[in-house]
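Query structure, 146 tokens:
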């Protein structure tokens, strides 16, 4: 290799080293949705009274009131079924507001993962469920549905 080619090679290498990170590093991740694995979702709580009727507290989330009671769930996986999406999730208990729900997503649960439950996307949409956070699903959490 002659001197001129060596200089060109070194200039090319120097230029590549100066480039910013890869394209994926510079793109912001999309906002999680009701079907994003790892999404934390606040579902307006609808207690069921004897006889199957929803109690008055169940109406808090549907009216758009942020001061209702919410059931926290975390999406593990989503599967396409005949006419809807089946959402496999963990249930994490109840919170008193959407702000409390957002705060709850920042702490990691200790111990083994809770049991897996299944709901449908149409059910979450009809209850006006809200995505309040996201954290990628761990291997241990994925094992719960395998």
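Result returned for the query:
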């Amino acid at each position: 290799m002659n001197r001129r080619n060596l200089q060109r090679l070194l200039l090319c290498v120097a230029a590549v080293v100066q480039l910013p990170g890869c394209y994926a590093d510079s793109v912001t991740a999309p906002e999680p949705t009701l079907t994003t694995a790892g999404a934390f979702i606040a579902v307006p709580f609808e207690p069921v009274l004897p006889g199957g009727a929803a109690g008055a507290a169940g109406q808090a989330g549907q009216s758009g009131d942020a001061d209702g009671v919410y059931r926290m769930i975390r999406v593990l996986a989503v599967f396409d079924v005949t006419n809807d999406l089946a959402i496999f999730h963990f249930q994490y208990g109840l919170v008193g507001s959407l702000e409390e729900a957002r705060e709850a997503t920042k702490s990691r649960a200790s111990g083994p993962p809770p049991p897996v439950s299944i709901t449908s996307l149409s059910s979450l949409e009809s209850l006006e469920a809200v995505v309040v956070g996201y954290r990628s699903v761990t291997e241990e959490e994925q094992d719960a549905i395998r």
